[in-house]
Write a structure and sequence with these properties.
By secondary structure, the chain is mainly beta. Helix content is 14%, strand content 48%. The N terminus is likely disordered.
Length: 333
């Protein structure tokens, strides 16, 4: 009797979230889900000599549907994915008003999806487009160079700008939670194969960034950038219970070390003192307790970078701070 009372008390204390659960997604043939995604990227930047940060905003909004056409062995499903358009909103600046552009995406795929939200195969259902001949302009406007790293990232004359554009662009992508279908938020979170208990973690690669390794004599090389997923147990949102999974990302690296190592050069030759590149992100996913489909998700990210050179050791010659928010909601199904 005493043991039974103790067991009952422990169950009340710890709740159902401490039990081992299987988070594998359960598909049903014919189910059709519609989602709404809204993302915002806020960037504040300044260059050498400016005291004021210049803000800019970018919103990306779209809807997509998933319809299960067929079921295969081991819980695998063939899912028809549609994303007709994406709305881009470039925020108001001091010299222009806000601008809204609706881009025709026409994404139309049959996807083979596993119960852990991995896309195993993609089949594009759109007819192939005819290639149009590319006519090169007489003068290339990008050949002028310039110090702005993101314009310079598009030139052939500035390899430093190209590298900056590549890796800072990856920060933008992560802040907005956009990218390929396999790396964006549409088929997320990536789920574990095995049962998990509250506090258990697993990882999934979402990108690549230069990071220092203890091997290779401490050199900085490009390596995988992983989300660390954590099962948080059962939460109650608007009176309904869900399984909660959190994805966390923490990047803290120095791009100058990578550039110097890449060109086998010393700071005195490249004039680069440091380029700290930072990003912290957290995403909370709420999963239906029966089907394990994602019902909603909320993401926040904070990051930025500074370009420090040895000629001006105490002030950044270029600096950006960025914040990102993304929400995903199941709106039909």
């Amino acid at each position: 009797m005493i043991l039974s009372v103790l067991a009952f008390s422990a169950a009340l204390l710890h709740g159902p979230g401490t039990a081992a659960v299987t988070l594998n997604r359960v598909f049903s043939k014919g189910e059709k889900l519609q989602y709404d995604v809204k993302s915002n990227l806020h960037v504040e930047g300044r260059e050498y000599g400016l005291q004021t940060f210049i803000p800019s905003d970018l919103d990306l909004n779209y809807k997509f549907t998933q319809e299960v056409k067929d079921l295969k062995a081991d819980g695998i499903a063939v899912v028809h994915y549609l994303r007709p358009t994406m709305t881009q909103i470039d925020g108001e600046t001091f010299d222009r008003p806000s601008k809204t552009t609706v881009e025709k995406m026409d994404l139309n795929f049959d996807l083979t999806v596993s119960p852990i939200n991995e896309i195993l195969e993609m089949k594009d259902l759109n007819p192939p487009k005819k290639k149009k001949p590319i006519k090169k302009p007489a003068t290339d406007p990008d050949d002028g160079g310039g110090y702005n790293f993101f314009m310079a990232g598009r030139t052939r004359q500035n390899p430093l700008g190209a590298l900056m554009g590549q890796f800072v662009g990856e920060l933008y992508r992560l802040c907005l939670n956009v990218g390929s279908l396999d790396s964006g938020i549409d088929f997320a979170p990536k789920l574990p194969f095995d049962e998990v208990k509250e506090g258990d973690t697993w990882k999934k690669t979402v990108g690549y960034q230069p990071q220092k390794l203890k091997s290779k004599n401490g050199k900085t090389v490009v390596q995988r950038l992983d989300y660390t997923y954590t099962y948080k147990g059962i939460v109650t949102v608007n009176g309904k219970q869900y399984y909660r999974v959190n994805a966390a990302l923490d990047l803290n690296t120095d791009l100058a070390n990578f550039i110097n190592d890449l060109f086998d050069a010393k700071p005195a030759e490249t004039h680069l003192k440091s380029i700290p590149l930072l990003l912290k992100q957290s995403i909370d996913y709420n999963l239906d307790m029966k089907t394990k489909r994602t019902v909603s998700a909320s993401a926040t990210a904070n990051g930025g970078y500074k370009v420090m050179i040895i000629d001006v050791p105490d002030e950044a010659v270029q600096e950006e701070k960025m914040t990102g928010t993304t929400t995903l909601r199941l709106i039909g199904g």
